[in-house]
Amino acid sequence: MKCLILASLLATLLILISTHAEGSPPVTKNTKATLTLNSFEKGGSGGGPSECDGQYHDDDTRIVALSTGWYNGGSRCLKKIIINANGRSVDATVVDECDSNGHPPCADNIVDGSKAVWKALGLDSNVGVFGITWTDA
Question: I need a surface site. Which of 42, 51, 101, 127 has the fewest CB within 10 A?
Fold first, then answer.
């Protein structure tokens, strides 16, 4: 009986660890994040093809990469999120992980958006960094 309880506790702990990376808060209705600018096109600033589908994407498509904790091992791949900023809301599809070891490096709490996301929010993409909130769609 003790072994069964211990195994159950261990399984629960592993699930908790795998679904919440250090540094990334849980996603709520208004999760705070920093929106950064990225190009998902071949030869763009994002590097290789997107993790979720192995493809490059046009800068005119509303897509994002999420920092490692929120990407959660791909559990949000090809799902939509809703981003709020500048008095506007926009939906975007998760296509990639914004990795802290990548190029360019990406910190925790980042939503790395395409030019189309910035445009839909009425933000100046020349700034390249903006405080937002977001949630799963």
Answer: 101
pLDDT 10s digits, 89-117: 999 999 999 876 655 567 889 999 999 99
Tell me the residue range of the domain where 57 lies: 23-136
Give the pair of three-digit tokens for residue 62: 């509303």
Does 122 fall in a domain?
yes
Paired strand residues for 32? 133
Q: Judge whether 58 lies within some domain.
A: yes
Whether residue 78 contacts residue 97, with contact meaning beta carbons closer than 8 Å, is answered with no
Domains: count for the chain: 1
| Cα–Cα distance measured from residue 71 to residue 77, given in angstroms and rounded to the nearest whole number | 8
In a domain, 119, yes or no: yes
CATH code of the domain covering residue 96: 2.40.40.10
pTM of the full structure: 0.79
Count Cβ atoms within 10 A of the Cβ of residue 17 and give its class: 0-12 exposed, 13-18 middle, 19 or more buried: exposed
Strands (E), the chain: 31-37, 63-67, 80-85, 88-98, 110-113, 129-136
